[in-house]
Each structure stands twice: as structure tokens, then as C-alpha cells.
Amino acid sequence: MSIDTVSGWDVLDNAHSALRTVIAGVAAGDWGRPTPCSKWDVTQVLQHAAGDQRAYAAAITGEGGPTEDPFSPSGHLEEVPSVFVEEAIRAAAAAWKTVGEDVQDAPTPLPQGRMPGWLGAGAAALDAAVHAWDIAVATGQPSPLTVELARALTPVATGIVEPLRAYGAYAAALESESGDEVAALLRYLGRDPGWTA
């Protein structure tokens, strides 16, 4: 990872790495495959994930937001996917690098607005990581969500997700079942850990 992609927030750097790795692993014929985001294919999830990272960056810097509505992705991508996502990751990482660990009112694009830096950076990480998972399971790749990453993201999820469900950003939580922390996080986010295309 080059220095300009490091945000200074471990959870965000790890989530960005997961998203970057999964995008690199998508085969040329898999961009139209269905995903756990039932209305979107792989390309649309990529557009949404990249757009959200740009939105987090723009909330901090005041410039360089998404080029289209992340919640209405077109499904048409003119750029190379890895380049498209890398530019968004770099923008988000550079923006979060300016937010110190002691900041209590970091700007975010979420309806909740400003929040402690750890929670805002975690929210950006949650978005990147869960969409990396969506794309991975849609394209037959191993899950990029490790137990350690899920453990770091769980307090973020419980801190921000409930009000976002009303906006359609997350589905209703699924009934809890036995399983590890990755499965528990996915169910809380309204995703079936056993989803297949």
C-alpha cells in the first residue's frame, strides 16, 4: 500500500484493502452478476461503494464528491474498475488522514452529520468492507471480512445503523443464529451470511 492510501485509521485502511483486493479479483465476465444488494449488480455495487468513499472525502474536504448518485448507480462504468475504486479510496484515505483521533465532531455525509472521528472513519470502513463482502460473494471470492475486522466494525455498526435503516441504507437485521462475529455482523446489517447468487 503506498503512503498516499494510508488514512491513519487501521479499521479504514483494512476495509479499503479488502475492497481493493476484491475488485482486483473480479473476472471480466462477472461485472453483471447479481449481489446481496438485490437491486444492484456487481458494477452498481462498485459504483455505490466508490461513490460513498468519495462522499466521505467530500464531507471532510468540501470538494471531489461522487460523480453520480451512489444510491442510484447507473451500472455503466467507463473507467477501469480497479482505477475507479482506487481513486475513491485514495481520496477518502487522504481526507481521513487529516482527522485526528481526538476529534469529536468529524463531518460525515450521513444523515446523523458530525460524529466522533473514530465513528466517522469506522462508518466509512463499514461501508467499504460490507460492499467488499457483497462483491466477493457475488463473484465466488473468499470473504474479505475477517473476525478481527468484524470485531472492529461491530461497535460502529451498532452506533450508526439503526437510524440509517429508515433511509434504506441497511435492511432490517436478520434473526440471530449461531455463528462467528463475521456472521453476526452481516445479520445485523440485514445480510444472509450464506447468500449465494
From TrEMBL:
Parts forming coiled coils: none
Domain Mycothiol-dependent maleylpyruvate isomerase metal-binding span(s) in chain numbering: 13-136
GO MF terms held by the record: metal ion binding
One matching Pfam family: MDMPI_N
Domain of life of the organism encoding this protein: Bacteria
Transmembrane spans: none
NCBIfam families for the chain: maleylpyruvate isomerase family mycothiol-dependent enzyme, TIGR03086 family metal-binding protein
Name of the protein in question: Mycothiol-dependent maleylpyruvate isomerase metal-binding domain-containing protein
